[in-house]
C-alpha cells in the first residue's frame, strides 16, 4: 500500500477541492491510501458532502491546526508554525508514516519545510522544482529548475539533468530521455559563462545529452528534459501560460464575431475541448521537488479537484517506480566518479 499525504488546507480552493481530489484519487487506486492533513472538523465537513465511495477505507485524517498563508515569509512561518499542515505532512515523511506528500499551498513554505525536515540527497547542493511543460506533441517535457533557485552554478545544472533524466525515465516512462540545455543558440560556444560551462559538464554526464535548445524549440517536444536556472525556467513557464491563455481568448473572440463563425465553432467544439485539455496544467499532476530525501509534489495554488487527483497519482507513481532511490544511487556514484 502506497501512502500519500495531502495538504488539505493548502491552496486557493482548500479544503473543498483538495478533499474532493484526494477522495477521487483514493477511489481510483486500489493500492493507495490517502492521508488528509489539516483541521479535522473542516475535512470531515467536506467528506460529509461527498457520496460514499469504495475509497472510504483508504482515507485517513492527520490533525494539523495551523495553515501557512501564501504571503507569509516561508522560513519564518515554517519554524514558527510547527502545527501547520505543511509541516505535519513533511513530518509524516520523515517518520516513515507516509511515502509521499502533495500540497497546493505556499511554494516557499513547502520547499523550506522539506529541506529543514528531511534534508537533501547527498551530492545535491540545491534541490530543484520541476514541472511538465505542455508540448505540441502532447507528451510533455520535464523542465527544471522552474523557480526554486534563480541563481545556479554549472554543477547545479548538472545535478538537475541527472535527476530530471531519472524522473522522465521512471515516472514518465521515457526510454533514454533526451536532455537539453536551454540557451540562446544551438552552438556549443553560445550563451553565458554558466551555460558554456554547464554544456561542457553535461557532455560527460551520465545522461543522454543532446545539446542546446532555443526558447522557440521548448514546446516542440524534441527533448524529454529541459535544464536551466530558476530565473529562466520561471520566465518560460509564465510566458507559456500567458500565450496559451491569450491564444484561447483570441480564438473565442474571433469565433463569436458572427453567427456563421459561431455555428462553425459548434461543430469544432470537440476539437477545441481536446486542445484545451492538452494545455491544462491540471492534467500533469503537479511539480516534483527533486533533490530532497522524500517524494514531494507541489500542485498549482489554484488547483481544483482534478489537479489534486493527478498530483496524488503522480506522487504514487514516483514512489512505485523507485525513482527517488535511483536518484540517490546516481548522485552517490557521480560524486565518487568526480572524486576519483
Please give the share of residues in helix.
40-55%
Regarding CATH, which class of the largest domain?
Answer: Alpha Beta
State the major sheet.
7 strands, mixed
Order of helices and strands: EHEHEHHEHEEEHEHEEHHEEHH
CATH domain topology of the largest domain = Isopropylmalate Dehydrogenase
Q: How many distinct helices?
A: 11
Mean pLDDT, to the nearest integer, reads 88
Q: What distance lies between the first and last C-alpha atoms, to the nearest angstrom? A: 40 Å
Walk across the major sheet and give the strand order: 3-2-1-4-12-11-5
Q: Which superfamily, in CATH terms, is the homologous superfamily of the largest domain? A: Isopropylmalate Dehydrogenase
Tell me the number of strands: 12
Alpha-carbon Rg, integer = 21 Å
Beta-strand percent range: 15-25%
Low-confidence blocks of residues: none
Structure description:
The protein is built from eleven helices and twelve strands. Helix 6 packs antiparallel against helix 11. The protein has two domains: 1-121 and 291-322, Isopropylmalate Dehydrogenase (3-Layer(aba) Sandwich), CATH 3.40.718.10; 125-287, Isopropylmalate Dehydrogenase (3-Layer(aba) Sandwich). The mean pLDDT is 88. The protein is 46% helix and 16% strand. The strands form two sheets. Strands 3-2-1-4-12-11-5 form a seven-stranded mixed beta sheet, sandwiched between helices. Strands 6-7-10-8-9 form a five-stranded mixed beta sheet, sandwiched between helices. The longest helix is centred in the C-terminal third of the chain and has 26 residues, at 230-255. The protein has helices at residues 16-28, 40-47, 74-80, 85-94, 107-117, 154-170, 193-202, 230-255, 259-279, 305-320, 323-339, and strands spanning 2-7, 32-38, 59-63, 100-103, 128-129, 131-133, 141-144, 178-182, 208-213, 225-227, 287-290, 295-298. By secondary structure, it is of the alpha/beta class.
